[in-house]
Amino acid sequence: MRWRVRLGYPLAIAVLFFARPNARSILYGALVGLIGLALRAWAAGYLHKQEVLTVTGPYAYTRNPLYLGSALLALGVAIATCSWISSLLLGAYFAVFYSVVMRKEENELRPRHATNFDRYAAAVPLFFPRLSPAKLSNSASGTFSPVQYKKNHEWQAALGFLLLLIVLVLIWRFRSF
Questions:
Q1: CA 128 to CA 118: how far, in whole Å?
Q2: pTM for this one?
Q3: How far apart are CA 148 and CA 42, in angstroms?
Q4: Which residue of 45, 54, 118, 123 pairs with 134 in a disulfide if CB–CB is 3.0 to 4.6 A?
Q5: Domain CATH code at residue 53
Q6: 172 and 22 in contact (C-beta within 8 Å)?
Q7: What is the span of the domain harbouring residue 82?
């Protein structure tokens, strides 16, 4: 986790350095990023970290809806930058770090939730979602909670994406002169 965050800062600088945004790329990137933010918000409203095995809401489609949302955010940023170098950097970063993080978290959840996790993992894919929600026999039906969304600090992802879009607009306007 620490390396992912530490390397994220120089990655952001490199992505912005190579960015060649224009009005259309920023708009399309923002639209894709908003889908990612919506998925992350939906997932964060269900997630009770370290408390229970969350298997309802978006977690009935994919075991990692937050990371799927992050992938859509990264895709949105790649589109907004209008740079194949920035896109490659984002894709490589995501593929390397998030695949490791997903497996690490899975290895932490399996001993904590034993057979419930094994049944869940057998029914719900790691990353790419199912087309219909898995119905697990012993799953408590959780509901979306705005309080849980706030507790999980998901608003920070929205703020970060907004700031990134503002910087891309500034880069576009600066390069237009």
A1: 18
A2: 0.92
A3: 10
A4: 123
A5: 1.20.120.1630
A6: yes
A7: 2-176
Q: What pLDDT digit, counting tens, does each position of 69-90 carry?
A: 999 999 999 999 999 999 999 9
Domain count, the chain: 1
List of the chain residues with pLDDT < 50? none
Q: Contacts from 141-147 at CB under 8 Å and sequence distance 24+?
A: 141/56, 142/46, 142/48, 142/52, 142/54, 142/55, 142/56, 142/57, 143/46, 143/56, 143/57, 144/42, 144/45, 144/46, 144/57, 145/45, 145/46, 146/45
